[in-house]
Amino acid sequence: MANYNLIGRDQKQYGPITEEQLRQWIAEGRVNAQSQVQAEGATEWKLLADFPEFRDAVKSSPPPEPAALPGAAPKTSAMAVTSLVLGILGFFTCGITALVGLILGIIAMINVKNSGGRLGGKGIALAGVIVSGVFLFLIPLLILPAMLLPALAKAKQKAQEINCVNNEKQLGLAIRIYSGDNKDQFPPAATWCDAIKPMVGSERILKCPAVNSGSRCDYAFNAKLSGLDVGKVNPQTVMLFESNGGWNANGGPELLIGSARHAGMVVVTFADGSVQQLRESQLGTLRWDP
After folding, report:
1. Domain total for the chain?
2. Residue 28 located in a structural domain
3. Same domain, residue pair 80 and 60
4. Is residue 160 located within the same domain as residue 109?
5. Dihedral sign from CA coordinates of 180, 183, 186, 192
6. Domain limits at 24?
7. Which of 23, 43, 68 is the last residue of a domain?
8. How far is it, in rounded angstroms, from Cα 37 to Cα 18?
9. C-alpha to C-alpha distance for 51 and 136, rounded to whole angstroms
10. How many angstroms from the chain centroid is the CA of residue 32?
């Protein structure tokens, strides 16, 4: 089978190439009837159309793409460029465009590979795939914490509320123990913290977990129960409640916390030792008189 030399559009000589290769270039539109060709061993350069063996091939071949001619720079894939741009924009679109960029980048790499040299931009397509992939990997890491933070904050708040309820239950039990040791009388309001301290074991029970102040106590005692006989007090009378009054704080509704510490809920302990979580709107219904 004969071999041929070819003058490219850049005026450089290519070859020798086989007849089969030359026919493939004709079919791909990389050369046309006006291309300068020399049969191997000959000294004369002729138009490709002047070779009888290629005359029919050049008549049916598509017009050449200038960027695809031998020696000419291949055309950069627009899809590859788009892939890179969309990948970069993924930073501003929470990864939405990065997903499209990843898909286009992969398609562009395949197209460049199968173009036979007519398309360039493989490196750009690869960059688009990498940038898009990085954003798609990072977006969940950024979004997931943002989604979890409210849930974590809510869980923390609920845990603090539960701990506060447990604190008041233990304080109510300590008051009951004190009363059992002191003729069934409630402790004196002015020194109630000091009176039950031996029964609680640790002052941490007197601290609400939702309060970060330096106060030793975040609860107050209903002053109207001071020294009264436990059996003669209505069990639904307020005994302990959340307050910012500090150590040995005692009084009435004026000492209630100004705003609820636990998502609109206030923890209150009654004379019978029961503990309830009440909304701020319910505080006005509380019984303070024994």
Report:
1. 3
2. yes
3. no
4. no
5. negative
6. 3-68
7. 68
8. 12
9. 56
10. 56
DSSP 8-state secondary structure symbol assigned to residue 187:
P
Asked if 46 and 112 sit in the same domain, the reply is no
First to last CA, the chain: 118
Asked whether 119 and 109 are in contact (CB, 8 A), the reply is no
Same domain, 54 and 126: no
Say if CB 187 and CB 196 are below 8 A apart: yes
28 is written with which tokens? 């791909």
Residue 127, in any domain of the structure:
yes
Q: What angle do CA 184, 190, 192 make, to 5 degrees?
A: 50
H-helix or E-strand spanning residue 219: strand 219-222
Kindly give the confidence (pLDDT) of every residue in the chain, 290 residues in length, as a single tens digit, with 9 standing for 90 and above: 678 888 876 678 888 889 888 888 888 878 888 889 998 888 898 998 888 888 888 776 655 544 444 445 678 888 889 988 988 887 777 777 888 888 998 998 898 888 767 788 889 989 989 988 887 887 777 666 767 777 777 788 888 889 999 999 999 999 999 999 999 999 999 999 999 999 998 889 999 988 887 889 999 999 999 999 999 999 999 999 999 999 999 999 999 997 888 888 999 999 999 999 999 889 999 999 99
* pTM reported for the whole predicted model: 0.52
Q: How many residues does the chain have?
A: 290
Nearest 10 degrees: Cα torsion 214, 217, 222, 226: -120
State whether 64 and 81 are in the same domain: no
Residue at 86 is within a domain: yes
Query: Are the C-beta atoms of residues 75 and 67 closer than 8 Å to each other?
Result: yes
Q: Of 90, 110, 145, which residue sits at a domain end?
A: 145
Asked if 177 and 266 sit in the same domain, the reply is: yes
Amino acid making up residue 57: A
